[in-house]
């Protein structure tokens, strides 16, 4: 009997167990976040960090005497543990300033607004019922204010509500990011609360094509450099950034200056999530489950980890629910209406920085992947035709995906599994 290895893969709000032949398994690339034991509760981790911020005064001291406080938090696409953090942050602000006028600003970036149901899932009903919450809408020009010129030459427009605050703070979480290097920190500002024009300029094809705009890279990353400028220009006075494990539990927290605290958090994450590539004929990954695997748009992120490890010309299988569909009409149409991936790449590299299209960065990276690999998405929650229209194959089960992959690679294949593609930095 052939020996089998069972691997637990995140899928939607649950998991999918996959069976692979042990002798064909080249390696399992997983972060060490689940092995890290902070030896304290999530609440204690956050409170300890708030007591010793990096490069700033304590949040409660910064809040003293401030009338208009704007508190930026991530949208529905990010697994930020806000049920834990938001009540603690609100209590810190109100410790020395019980009368503070606090607005929670959802940093949607270029995404759709977060719904009430999603807000409750994210922050809890008590917060949603009792706090003032506003979605940032990047396409509403009247809601933005000009702040200055980015180092790359683009115009920086940021949310007017945030820029008019007496105290601007932000929460986020830090993980590897497929073109900004790492999430968190300055990303709360750009793209979080930036105008659509600014976001599109920052995500232009020249920058996306840069070898430095990759997972885990900050040095000489042109996208990151613009984000740093935006963060400083916003005068965001304090951040709380968490690090989470596969169960979305807090294992680390970094508070204080938007640049310095974030960098400390990035170092912590990099030590836990860096893995060596294991080239194989078939590379299996996921997008970390809900909320990051809600659509095809987000699924591209996990695929970049597989791209970084796989043999060129091989098969990438991603287990991702895509329960919310494609995730962007422009993204879907640009990919589905093209003849193939190479046509997309040729066209996108001719688009000037100032004329960057909505979602261009996402179909640019997807086309880069599709030009080198065969991609199969495993889901029973998404229309198969939508996936196939975008030049990928669909499978309802992992077994079906593996059978399709074997028709491409043959039976004498090797396999690498990356259980959560958005949680690792492949070296």
List keywords for this structure.
single chain; 427 residues; alpha/beta; 2-enoyl-CoA Hydratase, Chain A, domain 1; Rossmann fold; 2 domains; 6-stranded parallel sheet; 16 helices
Description:
- The chain has helices at residues 42-51, 59-63, 82-96, 116-123, 125-130, 160-163, 196-202, 205-209, 222-233, 260-273, 296-309, 329-336, 341-348, 360-370, 384-389, 398-409; strands at residues 4-11, 14-21, 25-28, 68-74, 101-107, 132-135, 144-149, 155-159, 167-173, 176-177, 181-182, 238-244, 250-256, 274-275, 282-286, 315-319, 374-378, 393-395, 415-418, 425-426.
- With 427 residues, the protein is of the alpha/beta class.
- The protein folds into 2 domains: 4-29 and 276-426, Alpha-Beta Complex (2-enoyl-CoA Hydratase, Chain A, domain 1); 42-272, LarA, N-terminal domain (Rossmann fold, 3-Layer(aba) Sandwich), CATH 3.40.50.11440.
- The strands form 6 sheets. A 6-stranded parallel beta sheet has the order 3-19-15-16-17-18, with helices on both faces. Strands 6-5-4-9-12-13 form a 6-stranded mixed beta sheet, with helices on both faces.
- Strand 15 (282-286), helix 11 and strand 16 form a beta-alpha-beta unit.
- Helix 12 (329-336) runs parallel beside helix 14 (360-370) and helix 13 packs across helix 14 (360-370).
- It is globular, with a radius of gyration of 21 Å.
- It starts with a strand and ends with a strand.
Query: What structural class do the secondary elements suggest?
Result: alpha/beta
Q: Specify the biggest β-sheet.
A: 6 strands, parallel
Number of domains: 2
What name does CATH use for the topology of the largest domain? Rossmann fold
Mean pLDDT reading? 96
Number of helices: 16
CATH superfamily of the largest domain: LarA, N-terminal domain
Number of strands: 20
**What's the alpha carbon Rg, rounded to whole Å?**
21 Å
Strands ordered across the widest β-sheet:
3-19-15-16-17-18
| Outline | globular
Give the termini separation. Answer: 35 Å
Beta-strand content estimate: 15-25%
State the helicity in percent bands.
25-40%
Low-confidence stretches: none
């Amino acid at each position: 009997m052939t020996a089998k290895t069972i691997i637990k893969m995140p899928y939607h709000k649950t998991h999918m167990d996959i069976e692979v032949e042990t002798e064909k398994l080249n390696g399992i690339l997983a972060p060490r976040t689940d092995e890290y034991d902070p030896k304290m509760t999530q609440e204690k981790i956050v409170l300890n960090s708030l007591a010793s911020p990096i490069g700033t005064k304590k949040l409660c001291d910064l809040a003293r005497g401030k009338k208009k406080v704007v508190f930026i938090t991530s949208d529905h696409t990010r697994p930020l543990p806000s049920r834990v953090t938001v009540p603690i942050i609100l209590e810190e602000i109100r410790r020395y300033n019980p009368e503070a006028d606090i607005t929670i600003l959802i940093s949607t970036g270029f995404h759709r607004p977060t719904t009430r149901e999603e807000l409750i899932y994210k922050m809890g009903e008590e917060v949603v019922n009792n706090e003032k919450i506003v979605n940032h809408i990047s396409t509403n020009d009247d809601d933005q204010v000009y702040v200055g010129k980015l180092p790359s030459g683009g115009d920086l427009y940021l949310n007017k509500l945030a820029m008019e605050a007496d105290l601007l703070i932000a929460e986020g979480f830090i993980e590897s990011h497929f073109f900004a290097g790492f999430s968190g920190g300055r990303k709360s500002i750009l793209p979080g609360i930036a105008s659509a024009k600014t976001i599109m300029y920052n995500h232009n094809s020249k920058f996306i094509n840069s070898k430095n705009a990759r997972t885990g890279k900050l040095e000489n990353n042109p996208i990151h450099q613009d984000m740093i400028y935006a963060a400083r220009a916003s005068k965001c006075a304090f951040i709380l950034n968490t690090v989470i494990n596969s169960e979305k539990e807090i294992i680390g927290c970094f508070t204080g200056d938007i640049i310095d605290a974030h960098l400390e958090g990035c170092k912590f994450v990099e030590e836990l999530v860096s893995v060596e590539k294991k080239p194989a004929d078939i590379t299996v990954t996921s997008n970390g489950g809900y909320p990051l695997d809600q659509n095809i748009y987000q699924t591209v992120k996990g695929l970049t980890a597989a791209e970084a490890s796989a043999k060129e010309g091989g098969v990438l299988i991603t287990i991702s629910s895509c329960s919310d569909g494609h995730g962007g009409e422009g993204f879907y149409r640009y990919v589905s209406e093209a003849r193939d991936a190479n046509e997309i790449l040729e066209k996108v590299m001719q688009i000037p920085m100032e004329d960057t299209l909505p979602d261009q960065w996402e179909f640019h990276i997807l086309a880069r992947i599709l030009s080198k690999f065969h991609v199969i998405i495993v889901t029973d929650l998404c229309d198969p035709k939508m996936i196939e229209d975008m030049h990928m194959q669909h499978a309802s089960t992992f077994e079906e995906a593996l059978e399709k992959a074997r028709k491409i690679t043959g039976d004498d294949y090797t396999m690498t599994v990356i259980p959560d593609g958005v949680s690792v930095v492949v070296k």
